[in-house]
Amino acid sequence: MDAIDNLSDAIDTTRNFLTPIRLGMWLKLAIVVFFVSSLGFGGPTIPGGDFGTFADDPAFEDGQAEEFEDEFGEEFPLEELILGLLIIGGIILVFWLLYAIIAGIMEFVFLESLRESEVHVRRYFSGNLGNGVRLFGFRLGIMLVAGVLGTAPAAAIYLQGGLGDLSGGLIGLYALYGIGLYLVYSIVRRFTTDFVAPIMLLENRGVIGSWKRFWSTGTGNWAEYAVYLILVWILSLAISIAAVFVVMFGMLALAIPFGIVIFLLIMLGDIGVLLAVLVGVIAFVVMLLFVALVWTPITTYFRYYALLLLGDTNAEFDLIPDQRAAVRSDGGEPTDDGRWDRDGRDEYDDRQPSDSATDADRDDRRPDDRDSRDDTSSTWDDNSSAWDDLTEADDDDEDDENRGW
């Protein structure tokens, strides 16, 4: 089953992309991952809060407001509080919308980077503005639909007489309804990100058009995608637990020196306090970058896993044909003679007529040497010096490659 086999192929593909380690590429990729991954904290959600219900609650007006007036001798500033909360909520909403729009564009920056095995943030960003905005609009739309469907039953019950008379069974049913709705929402969002966005990039289609293109592939291979979902959820949980420990220890190691510097700056007085605030901001950015670096190989692995499955179930949607061919023709490692090895053995060994064939015979049966079968031994003798130079150059190249790894 492709959904299972691709687990190991995704490891090889991720390793080939991220190694040898290049600091500049990792830093740029970490910035992209900051937007396309939740970094283990959960995906971005619209900040909520029913201020109208909060303000109109009779218990609050008659109870807590009177207690405030009795204690402080003045009227509770309810309107000012609501206004302040609305302003804060509006600011948070604006920042979230800005983040979500950038995240939509960065999804395609990430896909371009995985396809090209190079990271060019500005080039890919400017080339995918339209795709990113369309993806953001679709994500926002399904989030609003899920929000309306999730709150509509509660709102209807509240308008008919309040929530105080709800039975335990009805609350349980509502909880099950909410869980099911969230699962549907998360599946649609994941499939849009993992499988529909690559089709958008390949065929320059919108989100709905790409969903229509993917639908027949998804339904025709529903078992593969069901296994994919289960494995992704299980692996995500296990890897997230391990990553949390790494992040905790790493952030603690970073916090100690920054904390010492901030403490010493505060001791200097007012100027020191201002500098301490600046150092605190730098520390916060460094910690975010560290978390993004930890999640970079994790996010890369899961995205390659999805792309491999998409290409296996429909070759027209293969975004990474070169990477796929590399890991599947040789198991991820080249052999000493330059041929690709499958499962630890030379793929041409199966073609030898007998076990007693010599190494020279097998070399003569290589596909790229078929034309040389008719050459006589004298030809090799005449060109022996050229052959020695060639093998010597190959040895030098091999040594250089080993040093790079």
TrEMBL record:
Compositionally biased intervals (Acidic residues): 389-405
Record keyword Membrane present: yes
Region named Disordered: 327-405
InterPro entries associated with the record: DUF7544 (IPR055966)
Keyword Membrane among UniProt keywords: yes
Comp. bias intervals (Low complexity): 377-388
Bilayer-spanning residue ranges: 25-46, 81-111, 132-159, 171-188, 222-239, 245-266, 273-295
Keyword terms: Membrane, Transmembrane, Transmembrane helix
Family matches, as Pfam families: DUF7544
Listed Basic and acidic residues bias regions: 327-376
Protein name (Swiss-Prot/TrEMBL): Membrane domain of glycerophosphoryl diester phosphodiesterase
Species assigned in the record: Natronorubrum halalkaliphilum
